[in-house]
Amino acid sequence: MPESKSPLFIFSPRHGADLVRMSEGAGWRPVLAEDIESSPDTFRRSGAWVIVIDARDAMGPARKAVVALAEIAEKERSAILLILPAECDHLPWFRRNGVTHFIFAPFETRNFVEAVHFAARFAEQVSGGRRRGLRGRKSPAALFLTDSKRKRRRKRLEIDLKPALERDEIHILFQPQVSIATGKIVGVEALARWHHPELGEVGAEALFDAAEHSDLNLELSRHVHAKALREVAAWPALLSNLRVSLNITAGDIMAPGFVRNFLALIDASGAPRARVTVEVTESGLMHNLDTASSLLGQLREAGLCVAIDDFGTGYSSLAYLKILPLDYLKIDKRMSVDILGSTRDSVVVRSVIDMARSLDLAVVAEGVETQEQLDLLAAEGCTYSQGFLHSPPINSAALQDLVAARN
C-alpha cells in the first residue's frame, strides 16, 4: 500500500466518484479532474506521479486529456494508466501519444489497484529510483530538484547547440501531408531534430527554446531552412512535385532584411519557390501583425505560399484570418482530436473548417492518428491531413519509398 496517502491524479468525466472510492480504499489520495482545461495545472499541483485517464463513455475527452497531459508526464517521469472499454482498436493511438499502461473495463477494485501499482513501479524505474514507493506529495525540495534538472538540461543544450551547428549535427525529417480526396502525398513539413550524444533525440521545440536562450534562434532557423531546402532541391524526380513547408518564427519575420534573405536562401538552394510554403504560428505575431502581414504578402508575391500553423491555440485567430495573406490554415492537433469529442467540440471544428473554406483557404489537419478522425475531417471538408496515421517524420530516403508505394 502506498505510504502517507500518496497523490493519484484521476481524469474521469463519467466515473470519477467510483475511482475516488477505489483509490481511497487502497490508501491513495485521489486528485480528481473532470474537465480538460484545468487538468494540466491540477496535475502539476497534485504532486502525483501516476495519471489515471478514464475513457469509459468519454473517448473524445480522454484523447484530449492524453494530448494535454502526455508531454507533462514525460517531463515529470510520470506514468499514464488508461482505463479503456474492452476495445483494442484505440490502443495504437494511445500508445503513440504517451500512455504507458492500460486496463480494460469492466474490472474489479483489486485489478485497478494492481494496475496503479504497476504504473507506479514504472514511474520509479524511469526516475532512477527516486520515487520509490511514491511516498507522499513531492516536497518543495523535490520540486526544486525537478525544476533544477530541467534547467540543467536546457543549459546543456544551450552550451552544446553552437558546436552542434558548426558540426552540422542538426538533421531534418519530413512528415508527409496527404490529400484527403486522393490519398496521395502532396507535400511535407520539414522538422528539425538533433541526436544529442548524452540527452538523446531533441525535437524542434526544445531546440528552438535552447536557441532562444542562447541568442542562436536566427542562426538555427537559417541552418534548418538551408539544410531542408538543399535536401528538397536534391530530391529525385519521384519527389519533385512535393511541396515543402518551413516553419518561421516571429523572430525570423522581424529580422532586418527577412524577405530578401529568405528568398536568397531558397534561390541558392536550387529549390523552386513555387514548391515552398512558409508556416507561421499564431503566437508572437499579434504585436507586429501589420508588419508581418506586409512581409508575408511580399513572400506570396514572390511565388511562395503562406500557412497559419496551430490554428485554434491562441486568442487572436480571427484577427489573423482577417489581416494575414494566407493560402492554408493548419488546425491544431487538439482540434483534430476534438472532432471525436462532444457535439460542441465537433461543431467548433466544423465551424473553423467552414470559415476557412469560405475564405478560399485550404485546410490542413495536424495530428491525425486514426481512420475515424480522418473520415470525420473529410466529411467536414478538410483538404489535407498530416499525422501518424499516414507516417511519422521520416528522412528523405524513407520518404521516397513511401511515395513510391503510396502514390
Mean pLDDT, nearest integer? 85
Largest sheet: 8 strands, mixed, barrel
Radius of gyration: 23 Å
- CATH H-level homologous superfamily name of the largest domain: EAL domain
Number of strands: 14
Number of helices: 16
How much of the sequence is in beta strands? 15-25%
SSE string, helix = H, strand = E? EHEHEHEHEHHEEEHHEHHEHEHEHHEHEH
Shape type: globular
User: Can you list the strand order of the major beta sheet?
Assistant: 6-7-9-10-11-12-13-14
- CATH topology name of the largest domain: TIM Barrel
Structural class by SSE content: alpha/beta
In the CATH hierarchy, the architecture of the largest domain is: Alpha-Beta Barrel
Give the N-to-C terminal Cα separation. 55 Å
Give the oligomer, counting copies of the same chain as homo and different chains as hetero: single chain
Low-confidence blocks of residues = 129-146
Helix content: 40-55%
Keywords:
407 residues; alpha/beta; Rossmann fold; TIM Barrel; 2 domains; eight-stranded mixed beta barrel; globular
